[in-house]
Each structure stands twice: as structure tokens, then as C-alpha cells.
Amino acid sequence: MAMMISFGALAQLAHLPRNPSPAAEVSQTVGISKITVNYSRPHVTTPGGQDRTGTIWGQQVPYGWSDPIPGFGSGNKIPWRAGANENTIITFSDDVKISGKDLAAGSYGLFLLVEENGTATWIFSKNTQSWGSFFYDEKEDALRVTVQSEDHDQTPRLTYNFTDLTGNSVTIALDWEKKRFPLKVEFDMHAIVLASITDELRSTAGFTWQSYNQAANYCLNNNVGLEQGLKWAEASIANTSNFTNIGTKSQLLTKLGREAEAKEIMTAALENPSATEGDYYNYGRQLIGQDKDQEALAVFEKLNKKWPNHWLAPHGLARAYSALGDYKKALKYERVALERAPAGSKGFLEGFVKTLEEGKDFN
Predict the structure, then answer these.
(1) In whole angstroms, what is the distance from residue 217 CA to residue 33 CA?
(2) How many angstroms separate the CA atoms of 25 and 59, rounded?
(3) Alpha-carbon gap, residue 177 to 154, rounded angstroms
(4) Burial 298-327 (b: 16+ CB within 10 A, else e)
(5) Which H or E run includes 262?
(6) Would you say residue 13 has pLDDT above 70?
(7) What is the mean pLDDT of the chain?
(8) Which of 81, 110, 207, 237 has the highest CB neighbour count under 10 A?
(9) Could you say which DSSP state residue 214 is in?
(10) How crowded is residue 172: how many other Cβ atoms within 10 Å of its Cβ?
């Protein structure tokens, strides 16, 4: 069946409203990457009021390829333009995988070949300038992927939706009438972020210790590029040495299996003038999380010696003794912490006291 074309729509002035199939643009950010779809939105109901439900697939949108229109277009077989009016255009800010296949960053004409058996083939064309799909040429294909269509709730006006969003992927879904055509898109997000960080650090961000420390922490927290993260931590320390960035370097060394070095620099960091009671406390908690309870106790004892009147001092000792299973001693220190703590912290401390009274670890 030949694909239908409205030459009235083709000939109209570019900036007049297109009420039957209005233009639309939708975007989704995935991590720091962006996907944008520009398309036009036909309705199941015609402007004259005819409900075409049940006739969209196989009739309004023919199954398979459509025959070329004599005297117009490229003369090649025609896929559906996956929308109305001009090309549907999809743009990726970064390189992607489409259903597991590589596609370079950039803009593409987007077409869809719908089959009667429920499968459909998405076609990404390097040609984004043509009107509709009448000038389609397979030699301009950048990628084709085949998907399985799905039954879906009635969607009167054709819509591109983004579903199943994660930190590095999303499904783009064309929904119209009672069908959905999904398209899985994935980014190598960590590689993209690391490249972006590298570029940013070549600009004004590279003049501050905080920026290098943030970069190092991205590697640390996501367990990626640890050697590069270590270099960024060292650059941060070279800029301004403080407990925060020394701690970042120590944690990276630990993840790299260099625990003796990590311990050595943290011992020095605790003597850094920038170290606060909160730094001691957080480091002690970190050690407990690594099942280094005796080392945590030593840190909390130093905290108690340096800031004997601060509520975190007895609270830290309570944590260490609780981790070591000495609930009686932990309870003694936690009651002292409860007395000294600011009003906003008393609530959770009361809960810890109750847990210790029951003979349980509150870490």
C-alpha cells in the first residue's frame, strides 16, 4: 500500500501552525548526556473527526516498505518517518549504544519499518534535511536495529516517551494508538564523565583544590579510574593540603591495595591543622565500616584527648566499643554524649542508648 502524503502540509509556509500534527521536542538527560527528539504528532482522530483506531497499523502506517511516489522523492522504497511532516530527528550529545550497537554522537533522521508480525526496524539515517521519508536512501543509513513492538494503553496523539531511566541508560518509546515501539539507549557514562572532568580541569576549575578533590572522589565513589583519581587527589594536595583531600588520597590507596601507604598518610592527616573533630569522627566511622574496630578506637581516643568536651568524643568512643561488643562501656559513653549533644542530635542518640541497653550493636 502506498504511503499517504498531504501536499498541502508540504507546501505551507514554515512558520504557520500545524494543527493536525503539531511539532514537538522532547529531551532526556542520562547522567550528563542528553537525548533530544524533534518530531510532529499526528492524532488517531482526523481533523474531520474520523476515528482511525484499528486502522493505524497496516493502513495509515503501511506494513513493510511503501512504494515510491512517481516524480517525487528519491525513487527508492519508503519507510515510515516515525512521526509526521519533516524528518523525525534524534540527537545524541555523546556516543551511544542502541540495542547494544554503537552509534556516534550527532543528529540522525529517524525512520521506522513496521512489520505485521510485531517486529519493527529503527533506521538511523545520516540525512536529517529531507521532508518526511520520501527522499530516504539506504546508503545514508548509520544504523538499523530490530525491536519487538508492544501492546500499550491508548495514546491518541503520537508521543515519544522516556522510560526505565537509570544512571547510564534509558528506553525511548514511540507510543501511538495501542502500540509501543521501544528503543534501548546506553551511554558509557563513566568514560564520558571522566573525559568531561579532564576537560573542565583544563579551565578555571583546575585552579582550586576542591575541583581536583571532587574529581578524585568521583573515581573513588564509583570505583573507576582509580589511578587517575589518585593523580587528581595528589594535584589537590599540591594545591592546598588539608585533611579532606589527604583522606581522599588515603581511601584511593586503600582501594588500590596500598593499605600501608593509606594508613601512613592518614596518621599524618590527623595531625594536619585543618583536621576537625568531625574529620576524626568520620574517619573513625570509616574504619568501623572496614571492620578495623581497634584502629577506630585509637582514632576516637585521640578525638577524646583533643576535644574532651565535644559530644562527638564520647559518641565516637561509644561507637568503637559497640563495634567491639563491649556494650556496657559503650552505653556509659553514649549517655555522656546524650547529655552534651545539641537538641537536634538527641533523638537519634536516645535510640542508640536504647539499642545498647538491649545489648545490641548500634553501628
Answers:
(1) 20
(2) 26
(3) 5
(4) ebbbbbbeebeebbbbbbbbbbbbbbbeeb
(5) helix 259-269
(6) no
(7) 93
(8) 110
(9) H
(10) 22
| Segments making up each domain of the chain, as ranges | 7-187, 190-357
The neighbour count for residue 201, using CB atoms within 10 Å, is: 18
Confidence of residue 71 (pLDDT cuts 50, 70, 90): confident
Using a 10 angstrom Cβ sphere, with 0-12 exposed, 13-18 middle and 19 or more buried, the burial of residue 93 is middle
SS3 169: strand
β-strand partners of 120: 114, 147
Based on C-alpha coordinates, what's the Rg of the chain?
31
Residue 44 contacts residue 52 (beta carbons within 8 Å): yes
CA separation, residue 131 to residues 11, 56, 87, 300 (Å): 11, 21, 6, 71
Superfamily of domain 190-357 in CATH is: Tetratricopeptide repeat domain (1.25.40.10)
Amino acid identity for residue 217 in this structure: N
Reduced to 3 states (helix: H, G, I; strand: E, B; else coil), residue 123 is strand
Buried b (16+ CB within 10 A) or exposed e, 233-250: bbbbbebebbbbbbbbbb
Closest C-alpha to 218, from 167, 260, 291: 167
Decide if 229 contacts 223 (C-beta within 8 A). no
Cell numbers for 210, please give them.
576542591
The Cα–Cα gap between 285 and 291 comes to 10
Question: What does the alpha-carbon distance between residue 229 and residue 32 come to, in Å, rounded to a whole number?
Answer: 19
For the record, the C-alpha cell of 19 comes out as 494543527
- The partner residues of 228 in beta bridges, in order of sequence, read none
Flag the least confident range among 21-35, 43-57, 62-76, 210-224.
62-76
Q: Which residues contact residue 157 at a Cβ distance below 8 angstroms, ignoring those fewer than 6 apart? A: 41, 42, 43, 44, 176
Tell me the whole-structure pTM to 2 decimals: 0.81
CA dihedral 184, 189, 191, 193 (to 10 degrees): 150
Comparing C-alpha atoms, which of 274, 228, 283, 218 is closest to residue 250? 283
For residue 2, is pLDDT > 50? no
Cα gap 330→353, rounded to integer Å: 9
356 phi and psi angles, rounded to 5 deg: -65, -35
